[in-house]
Specification:
The complex is a heterodimer of chains A (about 240) and B (about 325). Chain A has about 240 residues and is of the alpha/beta class. Chain A folds into two domains: about 160 residues, P-loop containing nucleotide triphosphate hydrolases (Rossmann fold); about 80 residues, no CATH class. Chain A is built from nine helices and ten strands. In chain A, the strands form two sheets. A six-stranded mixed beta sheet of chain A has the order 6-7-8-3-9-10, sandwiched between helices. In chain A, a hairpin with a 2-residue loop joins strand 1 and strand 2. In chain A, helix 3 packs across helix 4, helix 3 packs parallel to helix 5 and helix 4 crosses helix 5. Chain A is globular, with a radius of gyration of 18 Å. The termini of chain A are far apart. Chain B is mainly alpha-helical and about 325 residues long. In chain B, strands 1-2 form a two-stranded antiparallel ribbon. The longest helix of chain B has 27 residues. The radius of gyration of chain B is 20 Å and the shape is globular. Chain B starts with a helix and ends in an 8-residue tail after the last helix. Classes of the chains: A alpha/beta (about 240), B mainly alpha (about 325). Chains A and B meet through helix 2 and helix 3 of A and helix 8 and helix 9 of B.
């Protein structure tokens, strides 16, 4: 089986610093794939290269069998990769509904169709009751879900989530976890960067650990979280 | 438009229709002076719609719309005086000329990621050096200006925009009303939603598959084309053109006041702003004449003060406030 997303030997340097160096991994269709690692490990850089927000210095990214490295982010989105932002970026002056409608308009030019899609997605993400609220007036957990909704409305095959759980209370985390699990069950492949281990262990079918820009472990949660290198570099003393 | 119409409450519809009827019937009672003020109201409402499309919807600040106004005016006027090609034909040449300039400015700015204030500076620069260019362009009279004769053969007929004030009155009304319909239609299209996304957050807009360069270029294309049509009107209404007036930065500023005062990014803002601002400006001119005061910059100072007062009281503009108080909008803001 060929992977939905295949990253090979990907590198990115900022001046002398190797933010990401020679990272390779595969995300299979149907996976929930988590990338973890300490701050500054290169997770967001890696993520931005996949999403087209940054061009890699070396290596390749293939999505559904086609190379996508160096494409603009709107082209990457059109290929079927949706994303959220670590620092949420809803369209602040617009309503929740219009935010999601704009996502849905990627696949259609018909507003009525986009509204239908938006309604479906807002229901799925528990935002339907807030659809007339202005996005800037939402609380953080709602804005995070709005980001996911807007990305899901583009009907992606792969959803990239950048620390979507950060800053949420445990009950809110569980709520998003169950939503993501439902989305995954309906056929969506998810790649997430996450610090909240509670969410990672609850969701991920595979984990990649980054440290200083390099992949130091990859595998199922059980295997990866037992590796001494991972425990030492990431989970730290408290896990020992 | 249908959406906005449906979402507007009945008394909102009634006010809109009554106002339109009043404007259509106005020439029955209005004297020449009042008509000339109303012509300016419609003219500024029209240009305000054109500029607001780029700024209010697509979020791109242009402070050089005089460029498209001037190119439209000069092209159509020159075609008429030099080749006898009337404005109804000339507009089809004037619009592409101004649109090409708009596309060039847009391409230069957005291709090389010149955004915000820097983009605004770029638009000013282009209007300024076009002004200097026209100062030295002999075929259009250089700095001495270009004049439309009122007594050459056929110069007073509707087909070359040489009629009396009634012609200009209804023409400007039609321009303002159709621009409003066009803008409302665009706002409710998928393109309109894309513009809002680009305005709100370009990076997030890209992440949902929007080609932000293309979206901005389309906004510029429509905005500069509309402004050029306004320029053709300007040229034939005033019947004289000086580079120092038509390409002046004051001209660019003047045409953005109505949408800012009325409400950026709203459909009725430019109209409301023009209705408020133009009579005030004209009233001031009248007052100063009555008292025999001669202060050339007074109107601009007055506009500046009005702008400061309104922006400090109603930062969103006057229209959203009116709409809220009259409960005109049955749905969203």
């Amino acid at each position: 089986m060929t992977a939905l997303l295949s990253v090979r030997d990907l590198s990115k340097h900022f001046r002398g610093l190797a933010a990401v160096s020679h990272v390779s991994f595969d995300v299979n269709a149907g996976d929930i794939f988590a990338i973890i690692g300490p701050n500054g490990a290169g997770k967001t850089t890696l993520f931005n290269m996949i999403a087209g927000a940054m061009a890699p210095d070396g290596g390749s990214i293939a999505f559904a069998g086609e190379p996508i490295e160096g494409l603009r982010s709107d082209e990457v989105a059109r290929r079927g990769i949706g994303r959220t932002f670590q620092v949420v970026k809803p369209f602040p002056a617009l309503t929740v509904e219009d935010n999601v409608v704009i996502g849905a308009l990627m696949r259609t030019n018909a507003l009525s169709e986009a509204r239908n899609t938006a309604h479906e997605v807002m229901t799925q993400l528990d935002l339907i009751g807030k659809r007339h609220q202005i996005a800037s007036s939402l609380t953080l957990p709602d804005r995070k879900r709005l980001e996911v909704a807007r990305a899901v409305a583009t009907r992606p095959q792969l959803l990239l989530l950048d620390e979507v759980m950060a800053g949420l209370r445990p009950t809110e985390t569980d709520r998003i976890v169950s939503i993501l699990r439902d989305l995954n069950r309906s056929g969506l492949t998810i790649l997430l960067i996450e610090h909240v281990m509670r969410a990672v262990t609850a969701l991920a079918s595979r984990i990649l650990v980054l440290h200083h820009g390099a992949a130091i472990a990859e595998g199922t949660p059980d295997d990866v979280l037992r590796e001494p290198a991972v425990i030492e570099s990431y989970l730290g003393a408290e896990a020992l | 438009m249908s959406d906005i119409w449906h979402n507007t409450r009945w008394h909102g519809k009634a006010i809109a229709l009554l106002l339109l009827l009043a404007f259509i019937a106005a020439p029955i009672i209005a004297d020449r002076y009042l008509l000339s003020v109303l012509i300016l109201v419609f003219y500024f409402a029209y240009l305000g719609q054109a500029w607001n499309l780029l700024m209010g919807f697509a979020g791109q600040l242009s402070l050089g719309h005089a460029l498209y106004l001037g190119l439209g005016a000069y092209t159509a006027t020159a075609l008429w005086t030099l080749f006898g090609i009337g404005p109804w034909m000339g507009v089809f040449i004037a619009v592409p000329v101004a649109a090409a300039a708009g596309m060039f400015v847009g391409w230069l700015g957005w291709r090389f990621a010149i955004e915000g204030v820097y983009f605004a500076l770029l638009t000013i620069a282009f209007a300024e050096f076009t002004r200097i260019g026209f100062d030295h362009l002999q075929i259009t009279g250089g700095a001495g200006g270009m004049f439309l004769s009122v007594n050459s053969v056929g110069a007073d007929k509707w087909w070359n925009l040489g009629g009396g004030p009634l012609l200009y009155y209804y023409l400007s009304l039609v321009l303002a009303v159709s621009a409003t319909f066009l803008v409302a239609r665009l706002r409710q299209s998928s393109l309109g939603y894309r513009w809002l996304a680009v305005r709100e957050d370009p990076e997030a807009a890209q992440a949902v598959g929007i080609n932000i360069f293309r979206a901005r270029m389309i906004a510029m294309l429509i905005s500069s084309s509309m402004t050029a049509v306004g320029g053709v009107f300007y040229g034939f209404y005033y019947r004289n053109l000086f580079p120092s007036q038509v390409f002046d930065i004051g001209r660019s500023i003047e045409l953005i006041l109505a949408p800012i005062i009325g409400g950026l990014g709203t459909i009725f803002g430019p109209i409301v702003g023009a209705i408020i601002l133009t009579p005030l400006g004209e009233g001031l001119t009248g007052l100063m004449q009555a008292f025999g005061i001669n202060a050339p910059g007074a109107k601009l100072i007055f506009y500046g003060l009005t702008l400061m007062v309104i922006i400090s009281l109603r930062p969103d503009g006057v229209w959203p406030w009116i709409a809220r108080h009259l409960r005109l909008d049955g749905s969203r803001k």
